[in-house]
Structure to design on (281 residues):
């Protein structure tokens, strides 16, 4: 990989987020959110906006979470949404999520596609509904099996195309979470070289559609130490490894360093040996 500055430009913030899925109960979720806010509040450099943290707890926690996170840079997200307001028993309207203070919504996660049979047309309806409600869609894409990066990039770009259904203005408001299905829940994330190659080629497809600035974050067993090894990504989407709030803090420190901020003295220093090559080539 060509060696260039690892520091992020001011116009391209690094996103660092985490979803709890259904791993935590209600009380445990609130205690965890308080600790997560502490990790954010003890890093005042986050106020500059060059690193943007977000958290996506379970639906029943959202109202309380909005209160816990008030005044914090930590953005609140939801794990899913319905495709419309109205007579849809058991669904949650995007407009209600917006009322609760939710800022972004995860759509099209591999588990939703596989276990709940959400196809590309359903994902497109949800993306549109979320955007109409003023929520930022976090579109999850990813190939099913490990293979060639070119084929993976083509596959996930087709998922992206289907989700926006020809509306390229809407496309420019999406954030892409690239999560190889085979890496979700695995012991280790996908290899850094593989992820970097897929993201590079995906960005080529996006650029050809005039969407070079669409954020692309990586998820799939992501954990501390990974972000500095990746090329071309806009951040990380963390899962179970960030259920330990200290790990979320470690990734924030890595992101702040990449963004040009040096952690204040009271924070634990990073292991500089992990910064092996330049991630923003």
């Amino acid at each position: 990989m060509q060696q260039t500055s690892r520091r992020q430009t001011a116009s391209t913030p690094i996103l660092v987020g985490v979803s709890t899925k259904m791993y935590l109960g209600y009380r445990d979720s609130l205690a965890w959110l308080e600790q997560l806010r502490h990790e954010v509040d003890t890093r005042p450099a986050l106020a500059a906006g060059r690193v943007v943290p977000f958290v996506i707890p379970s639906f029943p926690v959202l109202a309380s979470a909005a209160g816990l996170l008030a005044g914090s840079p930590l953005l609140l997200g939801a794990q899913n949404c319905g495709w419309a307001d109205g007579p849809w028993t058991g669904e949650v309207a995007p407009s209600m999520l917006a009322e609760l203070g939710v800022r972004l919504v995860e759509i099209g996660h591999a588990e939703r596609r596989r276990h709940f049979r959400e196809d590309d047309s359903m994902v497109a309806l949800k993306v549109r509904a979320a955007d109409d409600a003023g929520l930022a869609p976090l579109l999850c894409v990813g190939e099913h099996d490990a293979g060639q990066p070119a084929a993976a990039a083509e596959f996930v770009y087709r998922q992206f195309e289907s989700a926006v259904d020809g509306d390229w203005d809407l496309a420019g408001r999406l954030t892409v979470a690239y999560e190889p299905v085979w890496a979700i829940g695995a012991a280790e994330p996908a290899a850094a070289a593989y992820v970097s190659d897929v993201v590079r080629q995906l960005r080529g497809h996006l650029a050809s559609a005039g969407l070079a600035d669409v954020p692309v974050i990586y998820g799939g067993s992501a954990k501390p130490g990974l972000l500095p090894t990746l090329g071309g990504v806009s951040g990380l989407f963390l899962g179970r490894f960030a259920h330990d709030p200290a790990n979320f803090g470690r990734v924030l420190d890595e992101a702040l360093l990449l963004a040009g901020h040096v952690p204040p003295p009271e924070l634990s220093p990073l292991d500089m040996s992990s910064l092996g090559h330049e991630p923003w080539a």
Notes: The beta strands are 14-19, 51-56, 75-78, 104-107, 136-141, 175-178, 216-219, 235-238. The domain at 14-274 is CATH 3.20.20.70 (TIM Barrel).
